[in-house]
Amino acid sequence: MNLRGTGRIVAGVVTVIVLLSGCGSGEEILDSTPSTSAPTSTSTSTVAGEPGPDCTDAAASAGTGVEMMLVGDCVDGWVAAMDADYAAECTECESVLLLRAEAGQWRVAHNCNQYAPLLEGMCAQVTPSPDWPVSVATDPGYPSPEVACEIWDANTWEENLEETDCDA
Questions:
Q1: Would the pTM count as exceeding 0.90?
Q2: Cβ of 105: how many Cβ atoms within 10 Å?
Q3: How does pLDDT run across 115-132, given as a tens digit for each residue?
Q4: Burial of 163 (0-12, 13-18, 19+ CB in 10 A)
């Protein structure tokens, strides 16, 4: 998962092995702590997001506080996006932000590897920093498996179908 960017440090909890690609300066690496807690019975993975604000780059930028580029469809209060500065510097970006509608605005919920399936626990939770003052979701959660199949291309790739239960 490429979590290097444009002079920003993204901190979060990762429950998967972090793989770094050659994108970015090589100086910023995710500060991660493996999760040791067991999943709770009140998982948010099946809770639908609220209907989202406008499905535009401008609405995503206004809600998150940084210039965003949507990289997919908005479905049930969820969408994938990229920080525009990061996208401009990266030729083969792996890192994609998962945005969640919250209080009528898009907020950053997670930083994910766009080449891996979008499943609960597979992404890093995002923390803003002075270099990257992004607005984050107070309840990041994860989209339902059905929504993940619609908004995340890797979930419908043949090699991931058994794990995601999506249709190709």
A1: no
A2: 18
A3: 999 999 999 999 999 999
A4: exposed
Q: Which pLDDT tens digit goes with each residue over 5-26?
A: 333 333 333 333 333 333 333 3
Say how many C-beta atoms besides its own lie within 10 A of residue 136's C-beta.
20
| SS3 call for 84 | helix
Residue 97: strand, helix, or coil:
strand
DSSP letter (8 states) at residue 113:
E
CA–CA dist 37, 137 (Å, integer): 21
Domain map of the chain by residue range?
11-34+49-164
Longest dimension (CA), the chain: 41
The angle formed by the CA atoms of residues 137, 142 and 147, to the nearest 5 degrees, is: 120
Structure token pair of residue 104: 């009528």
Give the number of residues written for the chain. Answer: 168
